[in-house]
Write a structure and sequence with these properties.
Length: 275
């Protein structure tokens, strides 16, 4: 059984010139150690919900597994905070992926990755998906509407994956990477193709988040916050449409605007715009 990701506890609040006894919600922080083929692989600090999805997504984004069938067994000991995973590979041959640093060019261009598994696993998007401005605004509104725990605690990252229409799955975690891994794990568990999907994210689009999106394989990422300069350059190189500052009735497109089609306007954008 999954643990509660938030607790209501007594606090002292200073407000209106007074110290007041009251209760408040805050989030659970849970260390999860992942053992793969009897070798300790990583410890993830996470929110203790959708843990199997998190493990699948994390292992896939690290290149330990490539598909659901690579996973032979997964056992959880939530009391001790351990996950025991068996895969159909020799984990000792994969250990370098988490530790060895390499500066390698991205897609033959000038951008740089900092870890070898990023360079090996991040995918240039081949998506054919197109979205309208109205779909972008609606998806962000959905994310905001599903963020009840964040509203209560202020301590979580929220993320969702969607096709812009009927398919929409929301996850949250204290770790921004974890929230995305849970979505990836959800799709891996159910053999759902991510190629023509969209990531919706509550936080800043950093280079790490952009690389995570590329590892998942989506072609569009939208956020209510800003991107960084390196994230935008990576998005251009990896053929990912990055959309930021999605708020109320506006947003900014930073890369590959050709995927955003405005049916209310005759103006078109080619793939050189915002390059």
């Amino acid at each position: 059984m999954e643990q509660d990701i938030r607790y209501n506890q007594p606090i002292i609040r200073y407000q209106g010139g007074q110290l007041i006894e009251m209760t408040d919600d805050y989030v659970t922080e849970f260390p999860l150690t992942v053992n793969v083929n009897a070798h300790e692989f990583a410890t993830v600090i996470c929110s203790p919900n959708h843990i199997e999805e998190l493990i699948l997504g994390f292992l896939a984004s690290e290149g330990v597994i490539m598909k659901r069938d690579d996973l032979l067994q997964l056992e959880l000991d939530e009391q001790r905070g351990y996950a025991y995973v068996k895969i159909n590979k020799d984990i000792q041959q994969l250990n370098y992926l988490s530790t060895k640093r390499l500066v390698a060019s991205c897609c033959g261009k000038s951008r740089e990755f900092y870890f070898q598994n990023d360079a090996a696993i991040a995918k240039t998007s081949m998506t054919t998906i197109r979205v309208t401005p109205q779909q972008i605004l609606h998806m962000m509104a959905q994310l905001q509407a599903h963020s009840e725990t964040f509203k209560a605690t202020g301590g979580l990252h929220n993320a969702a994956i969607s096709d812009g229409k009927d398919f929409y799955v929301h996850r949250q975690d204290i770790g921004r990477h974890n929230a995305l891994d849970k979505l990836y794990g959800y799709c891996i568990q159910r053999h759902i193709s991510v190629r023509n999907k969209i990531l919706i994210f509550s936080g800043r689009i950093s280079s790490e988040i952009l690389i995570k999106a590329a590892k998942i394989g989506v072609g569009i990422i939208i956020s209510k916050s800003a991107p960084t300069t390196l994230a935008v350059q990576l998005a251009k190189d990896l053929n990912i449409t990055a959309v930021g500052f999605v708020r109320e009735d506006r947003f900014n497109i930073y890369s590959h605007p050709e995927r955003v089609t405005d049916t209310s306007s005759s103006r078109t954008y080619n793939n050189k715009t915002a390059q």
